[in-house]
Amino acid sequence: MSAAAVPSAGSPTAGASRGMLLMLLLPGLAALVITFLLPLIWLLRASFASSTVGAFSGGDWTAQSYSTVLFDPFYWRVTWNTLVLGFNVAVFAVILSYPIALFLARTESRFRGVLTALAVAPLLTSSVVRTYGWMVILGDRGVINSTLQGLSLTDGVIRLTNNSFGATVALIEILMPYAILAMLSGFGRLNAQLEEAAAMLGANRFRIFTRIILPLSLPGVLTAGLLVFVLAISSFVTPRLMGGGRVFVLGTEVFNEATVTLNWPLAAALSVMLLVLFSSIILLYQRALRALET
Amino acid sequence: MQGNQLLGRIAWNALITLLYLFLLAPIIVVFIISFDTRQYLAFPPESLSFGSYVKVFQNIKFISAFWRSLIIGAIVGIVAVSAGMLLSLALARYRFRGKAAVNFLILAPFLVPHIVLAVGVMLVIAPLGLLDSYPGIVLAHLGITIPYTVRTIMMSLMAVDIRVEEAALVHGAPPRMVFWRITLPLVRPGLIAGGVIAFLISFDEATISLFIVSVKASTLPTEIYHYLEYSTDPQIAALSVILILISVGVVVAVERLVGLRRAL
Amino acid sequence: MADHHVIIENLVKTYPGAQKPSVDHVSFSLPRGEMLALLGPSGCGKTTILRMIAGLIAPTAGAIRLDGADVSSIPVYRRNMGMVFQAYALFPHMTVAQNISFGLEMRGVGRAEREERVGRALDLVKLNGLGDRKVSQLSGGQQQRAAIARSLVIEPELLLLDEPLSNLDAKLRDEMRDEIRDIQARTGVTAIFVTHDQDEALSMADRLAVMSAGRLEQIGTPREIFDRPQTDFVASFIGAGTFFEGKVAESGLAVVEGLKTLRFVGDASVGSTVKLMIRPHRLLLANREGQTNSFTGTVEHIVYRGQILTLNVRCGDRLLQADLPTHAGLLPEKGGTVTLAVAPEDVTVVGQVAA
Amino acid sequence: MADHHVIIENLVKTYPGAQKPSVDHVSFSLPRGEMLALLGPSGCGKTTILRMIAGLIAPTAGAIRLDGADVSSIPVYRRNMGMVFQAYALFPHMTVAQNISFGLEMRGVGRAEREERVGRALDLVKLNGLGDRKVSQLSGGQQQRAAIARSLVIEPELLLLDEPLSNLDAKLRDEMRDEIRDIQARTGVTAIFVTHDQDEALSMADRLAVMSAGRLEQIGTPREIFDRPQTDFVASFIGAGTFFEGKVAESGLAVVEGLKTLRFVGDASVGSTVKLMIRPHRLLLANREGQTNSFTGTVEHIVYRGQILTLNVRCGDRLLQADLPTHAGLLPEKGGTVTLAVAPEDVTVVGQVAA
Amino acid sequence: QDASIRGTVNIVGFSGVFADNYQKFIIDPFKAKYPGIEVTYQQSKNSAETLALLTLQRADPKIDIALIDVAVAIKANKDGIFARLDPARVKVLEEMPAWARLDGDKAVAFSQDNLAILYNTDTVKQPPTSWNDLTDPKYKGKIAAKLGDTRGVILLPILDKLAGADYKQSIDPALDLLKKIAPNVSTWEPAPDCYAVIQSGEVDLSICWNGRAQYLHDSQGGKIGVAAPKEGSIGQTNTVGLVENSRNAEAAQVFINYALGAEAQATFAEKSFYGPVNTRVKLPDAVAARIYGSKEAQAAQMSLDWNFVADKYSAWIQRINREVIALN
Ligand SMILES: Nc1ncnc2c1ncn2[C@@H]1O[C@H](COP(=O)(O)OP(=O)(O)OP(=O)(O)O)[C@@H](O)[C@H]1O
Ligand SMILES: Nc1ncnc2c1ncn2[C@@H]1O[C@H](COP(=O)(O)OP(=O)(O)OP(=O)(O)O)[C@@H](O)[C@H]1O
Ligand SMILES: [Mg+2]
Ligand SMILES: [Mg+2]
């Protein structure tokens, strides 16, 4: 049932190909439609409902939630906060992940498997537990503060958490594994021989890095950046807990409207807003990628 | 080796070590806490014991949820890989109208926050009578795992030289045989890697699961979530450590077997 | 023609998105048992033709007939052809023996017979003992031989070989050439092989088809191609040579600028301007100046090539290329003066120049 | 020797985990401006030697000296060598021109001069007009030429070429050979190039180093290697030939089983058993039977190769290979009887057989 | 024992310790009394999820009874999720106070968990006695207060009363007071939760629910202390509702009648430290003290007009978020 060598319509096996194509597409697409497309359509519908019940079963249509979202300056600020958070997290996560990804891509170490696994391990810890880990490190009486005080570098407490700094740091760490994975798969074009060729042409380590390694890995870096950005602006648990409730981003607002105030239409509208943000970022990203490739 | 080259190596290794330390810092803390004897999370531990681990293994809810998660994860892994394999074949080997749309549909779930999806998924699944059932949770997890399996399998598939498949055709293998004898074995690393990732995601997913399951099909993450609702004690840390060890074990084994990085 | 084994009629292939066809109205045919070499510069469409014959890509236009019947409705896997791919395309997850055995399995050949035939095929390509190796553990040359064995073992009716020897060193290449030639002669299989090595084409093929930019330039026996190239392109692509343009003063005599006159054998109407060619090895050291078709000049460059010595000799503003056998007595030296001569029948007309 | 540009002393390389060294006590040296060809079968260690000279891998033992000084402490990027990699290693994210320009940039050459030199380099390798292409848009041959241009443009002191012409067709290969030879002669750069094509090695290099399984078998001028191979391996690897074993009956005369006697020129003590070789093109058609070193037999196989005709002639139980020029008058036919003769000085002693 | 009534009652309600206690002290005794009635209890993450579930099943309810937050219950009633209880079947309704019988008996309050100030018994030697103590500068950066949910909505009327105002008129005075507390607040989202941060010493004070704190105090070595301010408190009110179109309405109302009864209420209060609603319940003094605090505090205990509050619910949370938290 392989489509193996049936790349074009005129091919000898083309007769079978239309049915075959359907067979190939159907199972996966069905699953995606049920668990992704339909929920998304519901989301759209819900965002135009007026009541909780309407959000589930139809009923009247109103743009009430959208006008709330669009005309409330608070949501504009939240959107701005979200973008800033996403940007900061993306930039730092990418910068910090890059060396690890590079290291993993090249190391010949016996422990490569373990090291790769360790780089991905943070993904598998409950976010609540991991957040608690960060509280221990960054808290007022946490590892860093007590170390600093122990060394008499400061006498007061340095506020490292329960603010957007804490949220950013924790998000960076939490999303780094994604960045590392994305970069690793994008580092395919790196090739030791290219570096050798550059060395033969007189490039020292620094220049090899800036002129060969970096440009070649840039698509992977961009993908990683995009992924982290998107995950960061849609996160809610970490900003909520690490931000000490002071960090208001779209994710936390969606969560809040959906589970605390039970305003599902508004939650849906905010989600749609988030999706619009994604889509524009992705479009920009694709532009950038195309520009890189030509 | 020249002196400054050696220096560069040392600096590089130090940098990597620091970054790893940052990446693993909260996990290290969690690891330490997991041995605390007190009944709440605090640092540093007062005294150390394996008590929390013992309790985790005695907690019937955790244990049964663990097996459920394992089964669900395995099914999700297998189904997601199968569907992903077929989708990847269609995308990698066919030109067809609407391919861009299909591609988008596969990419998009990466980018839509689970919290946004969760209620919608519940709503779609509920009328099918699948709430709190194995098929329901499996279906819900397929949407978020298929994108990963498609991605890894595609990577493997791209790496397969089409000419090899052509060679099989020329030498008398009908397309069905080409698939079973050539294509499938060649993308095995991608299949395994995709399966493992799908498994891990399903095994770890809480947000959507919370909306789908309650008692019968409750998974380990949802049990953890409920547990955290009324108690935060080192059991949670111990459980996290156990899960990490299991996952690291799986990842290492797969890396050994097929080279996960190639497929990622 | 009609009873030929393989008939290609007006074959055209334009890849999707390409402006120009990669194969452009190519027609030729092969009797059963013939070996044809497809020769031409990189990118001229050789592989494309093979792939159309195999059924791996569909022609844009034109027909391919096997034993008179159009093959377009026969799927690839029922065409019973063997093919050696340019990049081998061995199955990387199988051992060498499994690779070779694959086609037999597909044909439902029993295990015992399979093993025996695989063993013989391994012997044939000198890979005995390597049957259990993984493909990745073979050097490039060994892989190529495994690919050859895989295509031979199924005893196909038509054998398609895409640069089957490019990765072998001279020694092994010679051996494999003989081997393929032998098998082909013994089994009577029709074969088409692609190469860009003219020596290979000349020495292996019954006939050569020379292509350029998708078009068939000339098809003929090695001698016809080498000695009587019909186009400029073929003349310059196959073998080296020195080219002249000359006005035909009388039948078989052309006046060439910068030289005196050049006697040649061939049809050319008096008064027309013709393109003439002399192959380097047809230029011999002459005993005396002034002989017919003799040129005296200074040796500008000498290259020793084992069997032969290649000279570049400057006669006026022309550079003549001559290949002398290295054992031909006293050899000229760089800077020395030599006289070279060529027999009129070794001056070939390769084309007319439009006035 | 001491004032030679490149001196290689007892170089050894054992890859980690390998049992046998890939390069095994190899020593040779090159005067400034010489071009050396490294020749040998696949996997014999040619690339490994180049990479050690370049500094890309460290030798296990032995020394590499440039102008007398050990280079082990000079980092790769200050060695000022040009290298053409076997797989090109062009930078995929740069255009062709940017690739070529890279080395100049690293040397701080100004933009205007860079552009000019890149332009000239592109001309040189016949890639004019393709400077702005992405590397991926070039055919294999074009990529190889871009790699050559990139290594030449920096005017290195030492040029290392790893199979620089393997992907070009005969025509282009000839042209590029001349071009590289020319540039090398003009700039006086010392060059080492790797090839498995003996014709290339013979025609381009000042000297040839023939390797086998990590060891240097023989180093010498093309003529020395071709005409006076010192080992069995070299004799059979370079050029074709028919080999005989014979007992030396008297000085310059060996008794060969199945033939009569063979006169040869060379040192061999009476009573010893020697290995003798006759190159195919040294066997000529003889006028009459019974002449010294003449053999009469049946033509078993004829291959037309353009310039020459290769015959396999069976004399008793031996098969002699002879290359006759295609224009040598009346040519023999398959199945016919011919008499071949060889001059004693063309019968080469290639080794002793231990009793 | 009364085996004459048969049927199955499906309950959805809170999870965790609540579920354990409810099973043990309400459901099990009920089953002993009515062997003919089967009772299933399904845990729900929170009231929001319960509401979602009920909304989804409106056409064909699988659930008969929901235990749910009062604010959510009122919202549910707007969408017609619950059915009116039949006073003839649920006789115990007469014993319930007026404020507890919502929307004409479409949901009835059955327990209250008071908002309290928790403190770390190691670091706080003088437990706070008044809500006003929260403004004491010595607690700067030492308070955890999750106010973005019902806790905030309950705290506002308390603070309003402190400032001598009425929450039905304006909550501005409460917000002003809250702004004075804000500088002392270390986190508005205590992690992992508002109890653990006290136990671990991360903060000194935490504004949290009494019931769970009492439970932790008993079970984990008294590190958590509970201060019930003398100005009294307000409880988070849990209601029980009969689902509209329930197929087991009869058995369900038998259950509700039992669960709201004085006996069940008293037992549940003693075990869970949730305040009872049934007016006939008389708690022992020790139990009352642990639920409401001192006699003074017991006297000052307040109740809310939940219909009014539910209406303001999200507006108040929004004001807390925007005017207090976002600016601190
Ligand atoms: N899949 C394709 N899509 C578009 N153009 C193609 C494709 N394959 C080949 N071509 C183009 O068609 C032409 C002929 O290609 P083909 O592979 O037949 O050349 P070839 O003669 O085999 O060359 P070589 O000696 O380099 O293998 C080339 O110009 C090539 O660029
Ligand atoms: N990185 C390596 N690790 C281990 N063995 C190696 C490595 N590189 C090469 N070898 C081995 O060393 C030997 C020499 O390799 P090298 O690449 O020098 O051969 P070569 O003469 O260049 O061959 P070719 O003509 O095929 O390029 C081979 O047997 C090869 O298998
Ligand atoms: Mg080709
Ligand atoms: Mg090599």
UniProtKB/TrEMBL annotation, chain A:
- First-listed, main subcellular location of the protein, grouped into a coarse class: membrane
Does the keyword rRNA-binding feature in the UniProt annotation? no
Query: What residues form the membrane-spanning segments?
Result: 21-44, 83-105, 117-137, 165-187, 208-233, 264-285
Q: Which Pfam families match?
A: BPD_transp_1 (PF00528)
Q: Which PROSITE patterns match?
A: ABC_TM1 (PS50928)
- Listed PANTHER family: ABC TRANSPORTER PERMEASE PROTEIN, INNER MEMBRANE ABC TRANSPORTER PERMEASE PROTEIN YDCU-RELATED-RELATED
Record-stated family: Belongs to the binding-protein-dependent transport system permease family. CysTW subfamily.
Protein name (database record): ABC transporter permease
Record the organism: Rhizobium puerariae
UniProtKB/TrEMBL annotation, chain B:
Sorted alphabetically, the keyword list is: Cell inner membrane, Cell membrane, Membrane, Transmembrane, Transmembrane helix, Transport
Q: How does it sit in the membrane?
A: Multi-pass membrane protein
Report TM segments: 12-35, 65-92, 104-128, 134-154, 235-254
The places in or outside the cell where this protein is found are: Cell inner membrane; Cell membrane
* CDD domains for the chain: TM_PBP2
Which PANTHER family did the record assign? INNER MEMBRANE ABC TRANSPORTER PERMEASE PROTEIN YDCV
Protein's UniProt name: ABC transporter permease
Provenance organism: Rhizobium puerariae
UniProtKB/TrEMBL annotation, chains C, D:
Give the InterPro entries listed for this entry.
AAA+_ATPase, ABC_SmlMolc_Importer, ABC_transporter-like_ATP-bd, ABC_transporter-like_CS, Mo/tungstate-bd_C_term_dom, P-loop_NTPase, Transp-assoc_OB_typ2
Q: Which UniProt keywords apply?
A: ATP-binding, Nucleotide-binding, Transport
Does the entry feature the keyword ATP-binding, yes or no?
Answer: yes
* One annotated GO molecular function: ATP binding
Does the record's keyword annotation contain Oxidoreductase?
Answer: no
Origin superkingdom: Bacteria
* Coiled-coil residue windows: none
Extract the Pfam families matched here. Answer: ABC_tran (PF00005), TOBE_2 (PF08402)
PROSITE patterns xrefs: ABC_TRANSPORTER_1 (PS00211), ABC_TRANSPORTER_2 (PS50893)
Q: Which residues form the ABC transporter domain?
A: 6-238
The UniProt entry's sequence similarity note says: Belongs to the ABC transporter superfamily.
Under PANTHER family, the record lists: SPERMIDINE/PUTRESCINE IMPORT ATP-BINDING PROTEIN POTA, SPERMIDINE_PUTRESCINE IMPORT ATP-BINDING PROTEIN POTA
Q: What is this protein called?
A: ABC transporter ATP-binding protein
Which organism is this protein's natural source?
Rhizobium puerariae
